[in-house]
Amino acid sequence: MQRWRETVYYKLALWVTIGISLLVLYPLATSALLDARVLATDDFVQYWAVGRVNALGGNPYDPEQLRPVQHAAGRTEYIEGVDTIAWNPPWTLALLMPFGLLPYPLARLSWLFLNLALIFVAAHQTWHFYDGVEQQRWVAWGLAFMLIPTLFALRVGQIGALLLAGLVGALAAARRERWGLMGVCLALLTIKPQLPYLFWPALLLWSATQKKMALALGGVSAVVVLTVIALIPNPAVIQQYYTAVTTYPPVHWATPTLGGGLRWLLGVEHFWLQFVPPLIGGVWLVIYWYQRRQRWDWMQVSPLLLFISLVTAAYAWTYDLVLLTLPIVQLGALSSRYTRGEQIRVLGVFAALNGLILLLQQWIYNDFWFMWVAPALLCWYLWGMGRGKSLALSTSTQNPSVS
After folding, report:
1. What is the pLDDT of residues 268-279, one digit of tens each?
2. 190 with 169: CB under 8 angstroms?
3. What is the mean pLDDT of residues 231-243?
4. Interval 118-139: pLDDT, tens
5. For residue 391, what is the enclosing H or E element?
6. Tens digits of per-residue pLDDT, 134-186?
7. CA 193 to CA 202: how far, in whole Å?
């Protein structure tokens, strides 16, 4: 079987099968994605519209210019609380304009396949990073697509897979000590900088103490290049973004975050409560950095850094948890070296959590009430990692080294 897979005939048959599948899926997928009920809550129609408006020289942060474009794509229904604007910074437009110039059905399907591919590759690469058992690599793919927030992100056409790809690419570059490339990859995280917010002070501290200025240079250069691309058709885009952010601040967003929960309990008018959890996260980072500053390893610290960022972020939505693919697959890779019983326990609890999310979303339509998901997954992650340490300690005790 292995020899057959290495032949040119196998590869040719594989690509032909993929091509035929795409031809069959295209009319089915586009008809489903263009349903009016789907478009009413679809986020990609906003990404497509802002990319298209900016490419044509309009204001991509003006709801009055975006609505007719979205309407032309088939979005005739608007749900209260679902924004018309995509709030990502101007350099994101350089990535969205190519999709905006395509007909909407082709753009939406291309976006779906791109996100599927990015998540698949990220899971595959993460399994390799953390030395998962090669014969169980399929577990990485299963964990990635079993995560219900990932399915949410794919369903609504969200952009989180690009951030995930940037993070995994940055870790791959760090393994090779290619710091400039690491910075370029991390530029993708600035699409939603509030999500991995603890990475920014950590990167600043590490770059300064290790004198890795190439990292900052790579990241800044990537952002500048993308911004220039967005400015070419629309030189006023930076001012337009600033005006939109200051005119329509996200004061009333009911996000499924700990800060959102505090406002719900203590008064939604207290906007400052939204930023109490990030403040706590910042204190945690100072302690975490101080304890590990002499042995800081991005491969080892990034999963927990990402988890704490998302649990304490001021603004995040359930579909943003697609970024947790990194720590989840990391634990999956480590559990592949546990005993079979322990591995089943760790993966079984993960499956049960996602089953609960899937069950509840049949009755609860407001994303706000899923604020417990990120903390619950963090508890599972810490418990699973702790199981591995306990097993390692038990093994070393039973088999002491001979001095």
Report:
1. 888 888 899 999
2. no
3. 95
4. 999 999 999 999 999 988 889 9
5. helix 373-398
6. 888 899 999 999 999 999 998 889 999 999 999 999 999 999 999 999 999 99
7. 14
Among 157, 221, 155, 158, which residue's Cα sits nearest to residue 186? 221
Q: DSSP state, 400? A: P
Q: By the 8 A CB rule, do 83 and 41 touch?
A: no
Contact 309, 281 (CB under 8 A): yes
Q: Using CA atoms, how far apart are residues 39 and 334, in angstroms rounded to an integer?
A: 40
Distance between CA atoms of 234 and 58, rounded to whole angstroms? 7
Judged against a pLDDT cut of 80, whether residue 401 lies above it is answered with: no
**What pLDDT does residue 400 have?**
44
At 192, which amino acid appears? K
Where residue 212 falls (left for φ over 0; alpha for ψ -120 to 50; beta otherwise) is: beta
Supply angle C-alpha 151, 156, 160, rounded to 5: 70
Longest dimension (CA), the chain: 77
Contact 216, 187 (CB under 8 A): no
User: Looking at this protein, which amino acid is placed at residue 370?
Assistant: F
CA-CA distance, 371 to 221, in Å (whole number)? 36
* Structure tokens belonging to residue 339: 């005993």
Cβ within 8 Å of residue 51, ≥6 positions away: 60, 93, 96, 97, 98, 99, 100, 101
CB 387 within 8 A of CB 342: yes
% of the chain surpassing 90 pLDDT: 56
